[in-house]
């Protein structure tokens, strides 16, 4: 975008005042921060519309292939500043607000997060939408406009309590309602054969109504649409029933519609087989596919040519009903034969797998699938026998329908032309452990696309101090070509540069220390090492390992107060699924331990534990730029990729981590000498579990771990209820599925290395700067370019 398109401070100021007056109906004298935030958002939004129209027009005119990213989750966070940065007007916004006597930070922070996702999978979808726009890849995201996003977390006496999230209570300035884009979605009912064709008569219907959010890319060169569906009743009120006095039943269709897009499922750990969840998945998928076919036909293209114009990506198996639904639409609505329909379907679909954990793999009972989606159940059986017939070598235990269950992973695999993992290690494990037989039948179908993160939000926006230094040092433009960060490497021999690098980190740490003091009432020193573990609570992520080691450190400090310790602030953040008892117990333990250690006068400033409530995207933006150490300590083989790990390293934190997920590739990129590795490898984990006594053996070999578990068991951290953690300690001794005990001593030793390294601030600075310089590979632009080349077969329209 040429600079001439950028507004002056005065122009922007006028636009803000215009919206305050005419969109908000407020006099500047009585306007609240909220009013100003709305006015600013609308002023920025106006500037997104032109590139958005231009991109849409160009896609129509050139007949470019479009990508459709189907996801049950988009974890976007705040939008105002992101849009301002991509339009190149952040500083102008700041100055315009200041000229109006307002505090820019306060206005930006007034915006609630759009929290339409649980964690990694949802945030990845948001990064990918931004990169598609930045690369000029014509595309749409399709999701659900949940009325309530991920629950808000608070702590009561150290325990997690969930509160409903309510982001739509305020006006949402980034969306455009599209009441004319509406589709009927059916459930249940019956299927009859009429003249050799299946006719499905649903027993329930709802409407899916579109709401569009423009997603503007870097420098405003392109913008795509995130289209979110809201459920609406087909009829407001059943008048006939009402007039018969059946008042409650008259409101039934409305009640179904209201619940459908009401709330995001907050459990990303265990698949529960809930009917409402299946309905949500079909609601999203069917609305998206009807919209895709409508757009294709509006261009007067033949359905046979769909794969030349349409690529559909399934973000995990949540939209995997897309296979059967596309076959159904092509057959039952458009009169195609099954063979042609499945051929087109496979060519259009791609499937990304995001987890190997068996408990998270979706399987629907055939009776439920047959009841909620009777026609789809028939088509699923048909696809399964078609596949069996095409592959006579297929073993009996392989297939979509087994043991009265529809396995969504197998369904997605068989209906997609490409299946991808999200890191090199994860992809290998998909090939070897998850789909070994299907991989044999379809060699080359499984490919890797290592995850990435958008450098615009996660460096340029979240870390202005470091961004300025980078631009000053290597020039502008690295945001769209992150490999250029390599040009920083020569400067690590330059003491002046390293000082500035550490000064940027220092500024971020001071801001965070201030925020912690204000919000948590805990004083922490910016001289201490900021050691951060932020992610959903899950046993495999091993927050427990972290807190056990922390207790060990404390124990050592008390025994040997004279020794030389590097002061540390241990920062935790993350939510547990509301029904995940073990995860909630780990939160409570961290909170209890924090209470004891933070108030131990013998320790003073040397060790502090901070666990702020309600970790979300905005909090990540605050914590990551201030981190010295990034905790990526999952049991090897369990974390598909991780993306937080990338955000930290890019912002100059060093990683302590296992050989899991993308840690493996991060270590390759930044250099083994700039990464604190510890722990069993994935094959060693498998081997270790062969010993049913592995936990007991490991504990008996570690005096420190015995001491730590003993303190917990004795109630040192829960004196008012000494038995609080008996179950937890018992599990540690007797099962410890995630091998906390087996990795404990290795983790401790690695933490000692971290301590020693941090003691030498000059060499630490070099290692940190090398991390930033070598993280270019993890830009989501690289990842999206890979999807475009290997899966979508599409090109940039720029
Ligand atoms: C699973 C389920 C199970 C059924 C009910 C609702 C629900 C909602 C979400 C999920 C998602 C679990 C998978 C997931 O989030 N995987 C994460 O994906 C990241 C992006 O690829 C990756 O970096 C993380 O390693 C991986 O855990």
UniProtKB/TrEMBL annotation:
It is found in: Cytoplasm. The keyword Cytoplasm applies. InterPro entries: Glycg_phsphrylas, Glyco_trans_35, Pyridoxal_P_attach_site. Its EC number is 2.4.1.1. The keyword Cytoplasm applies. Belongs to the glycogen phosphorylase family. This is Alpha-1,4 glucan phosphorylase.
């Amino acid at each position: 975008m040429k600079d001439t398109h950028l507004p002056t401070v005065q122009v922007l100021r006028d636009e803000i005042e215009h919206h305050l007056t005419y969109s908000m109906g407020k006099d500047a004298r009585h306007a609240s921060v909220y009013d100003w935030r709305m006015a600013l958002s609308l002023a920025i939004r106006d500037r997104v519309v032109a590139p958005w129209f231009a991109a849409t027009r160009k896609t129509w005119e050139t007949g470019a292939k479009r990508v459709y990213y189907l996801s049950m989750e988009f974890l976007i966070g705040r939008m105002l500043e992101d849009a301002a940065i991509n339009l190149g007007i952040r500083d102008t916004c700041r100055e315009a607000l200041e000229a109006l006597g307002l505090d820019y930070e306060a206005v930006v922070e007034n915006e609630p997060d759009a929290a339409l996702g649980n964690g990694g999978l949802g945030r990845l979808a948001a990064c990918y939408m931004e990169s598609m726009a930045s690369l000029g890849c014509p595309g749409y995201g399709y999701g659900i406009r949940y009325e309530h996003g991920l629950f808000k977390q608070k702590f009561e006496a150290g325990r997690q309590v969930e509160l409903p999230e309510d982001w739509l209570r305020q006006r949402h300035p980034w969306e455009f309602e599209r009441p004319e884009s509406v589709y009927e979605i059916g459930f249940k009912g019956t299927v009859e054969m009429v003249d050799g064709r299946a006719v499905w008569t649903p027993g329930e219907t709802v409407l899916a109504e579109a709401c569009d959010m423009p997603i503007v890319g870097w420098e405003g060169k392109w913008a795509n649409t995130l289209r979110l569906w809201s459920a609406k009743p087909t009829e407001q009120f059943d008048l006939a029933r009402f007039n018969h006095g059946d008042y409650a039943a008259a409101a039934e269709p409305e009640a179904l519609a209201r619940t459908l897009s009401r709330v995001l499922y907050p459990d990303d750990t265990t698949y529960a087989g809930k009917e409402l969840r299946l309905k949500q998945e079909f609601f999203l998928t069917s609305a998206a596919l009807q919209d895709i076919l409508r757009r294709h036909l509006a261009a007067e293209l033949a359905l046979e040519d769909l794969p030349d114009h349409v690529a559909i990506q399934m973000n995990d198996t949540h939209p995997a009903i897309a296979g059967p639904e596309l076959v159904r639409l092509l057959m039952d609505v458009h009169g195609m034969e099954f063979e042609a329909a499945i051929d087109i379907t496979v060519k259009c679909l791609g499937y990304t797998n995001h987890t190997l954990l068996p408990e998270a793999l979706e399987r629907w009972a055939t009776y439920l699938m047959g009841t909620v989606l009777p026609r789809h159940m028939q088509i699923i059986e048909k696809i399964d026998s078609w596949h069996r017939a095409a592959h006579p070598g297929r073993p009996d235990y392989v297939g979509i329908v087994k043991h009265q269950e529809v396995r969504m992973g197998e369904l997605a695999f068989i209906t997609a032309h490409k299946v991808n993992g999200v890191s090199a290690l994860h992809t290998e494990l998909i090939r070897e452990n998850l789909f070994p037989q299907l991989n044999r039948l379809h060699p080359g179908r499984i490919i890797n696309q290592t995850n990435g993160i958008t450098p615009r939000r996660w460096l340029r926006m979240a870390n202005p101090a470091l961004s300025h230094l980078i631009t000053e040092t290597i020039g502008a433009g690295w945001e769209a070509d992150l490999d250029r960060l390599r040009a920083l490497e020569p400067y690590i021999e330059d003491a002046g540069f390293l000082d500035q690098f550490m000064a940027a980190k220092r500024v971020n740490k001071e801001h965070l220390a201030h925020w912690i003091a204000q919000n948590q009432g805990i004083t922490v020193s910016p001289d201490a090492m900021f050691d951060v573990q932020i992610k959903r609570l899950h046993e495999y992520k091993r927050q427990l390992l972290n807190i056990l080691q922390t207790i060990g450190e404390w124990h050592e400090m008390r025994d040997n107060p004279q020794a030389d310790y590097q002061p540390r602030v241990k920062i935790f953040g993350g939510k547990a699924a509301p029904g995940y008892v073990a995860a909630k117990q780990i939160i409570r333990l961290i909170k209890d331990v924090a209470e004891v250690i933070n108030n131990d006068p013998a320790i003073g400033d040397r060790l502090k534990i901070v666990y702020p409530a309600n970790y979300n995207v905005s909090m990540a933006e605050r914590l990551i730029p201030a981190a010295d150490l990034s905790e990526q300590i999952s049991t090897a083989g369990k974390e598909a990729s991780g993306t937080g790990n990338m955000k930290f390293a890019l912002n100059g934190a060093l990683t302590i981590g296992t050989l899991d997920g993308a840690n493996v590739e991060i270590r390759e990129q930044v250099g083994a000498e700039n990464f604190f590795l510890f722990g069993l490898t994935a094959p060693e984990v498998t081997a270790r579990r062969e010993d049913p006594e592995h936990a007991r053996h490991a504990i008996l070999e570690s005096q420190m771990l015995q001491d730590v578990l003993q303190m917990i068991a004795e109630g040192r951290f829960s004196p008012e209820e000494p038995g609080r953690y008996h179950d937890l300690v018992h599990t540690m001794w007797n099962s410890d599925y995630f091998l906390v005990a087996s990795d404990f001593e290795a983790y401790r030793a690695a933490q000692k290395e971290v301590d020693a390294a941090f003691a030498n601030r000059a060499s630490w600075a070099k290692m940190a700067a090398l991390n930033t310089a070598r993280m270019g590979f993890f830009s989501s632009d690289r990842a999206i370019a890979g999807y475009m080349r290997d899966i979508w077969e599409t090109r940039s329209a720029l």
